[in-house]
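Hey team,

Filing this mostly as a record. A colleague (T.K.) asked me to run one chain through the structure pipeline before their review meeting, and I want the input and output archived in the tracker in case anyone asks later how it was produced. No errors, nothing strange. Just documentation.

Input sequence:
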Amino acid sequence: MSKRALVLVSIFFVFSVIFYLSVTRESHEGAENVLRPLGNEDLKEATRIEIYQGSRRNGLVLVKEGNRWVILSDYRKPASERLVEKFLETFANLSGEERARGKKYFDRFGVGEKEGLHVVFKKDGQVLSHFVVGKRGPRWESSFVRLEGQDNIYLVPVNLLALVDIQTEEPAPPKEEAFLNLEVLTLPIEELKELTFESPNISWSLRLEDNKYLFEVNGEKREIPLEEGRKFLRKLFPILAEGVVPPDRFPGPQGVLSYSLRDGRKGRLYLTCQKEDCLLKKDDFVFRVKKETLKVLFSPSFDGEVSE
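Output structure:
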């Protein structure tokens, strides 16, 4: 190849690269420009969330009581603060690309009044925002949505249906299991100062002293090495439930589990057991827990001992 031809090829290559980069940049910037913010930071301050399809009577209501979230249904149930906060943040930061406009497209994208999944955020009785979520989008992590009162339909890069445990491609009634908190009690093992259990058949306590535990059962005391005590505690915590039952199902306590932490925090659980399940009352909620998961309460053992 001649020197002149080599120079021409080099110039052509350089201009090709410049053209490609400029087109790519314009395309990327254009994609960003078509995204419209649909949510806002105020949604993170919501104290009530209503989620329903068709009728509010068949929906799900989340309410913030103090520092905790609860599910309002036939009876109050604990909601996972982590999942609710994620839900709020997702909608607050939601942006979408307009794909259609007009009521004639509502059925195609599943955002009509009856078939769409309504998500309403409120604070102090005032509506902060009202979304109507439609079908899942062309990609799994996408969905169609519109704002109530508007006919613009947007494609958002989030599977909003999955946030309420809807795994189908079209809207469906929301499931409270998507927010239900079945974590009865989780304690930081290293920060636990004392744990006691009292029941008609057995009473014991495990107390942290210096670099060891002091275990007392039915009046007898003995020292437990630090790691053995922590192994015992890890068998018990976290306590996870199978479900939540109405408060009036709790007949009264057969035992009490109490704890105190190094920072001064304290708490207790009341429990009553039947053949296979136990009911644990924490605050004003009653959880159903497999009795097998609580066997260390009734037959504590350490360092290779066998529980009776």
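Quick notes for T.K.: The chain has two domains: 37-178, 184-298. Confidence is low (pLDDT under 50) at residues 17-33, 304-308.
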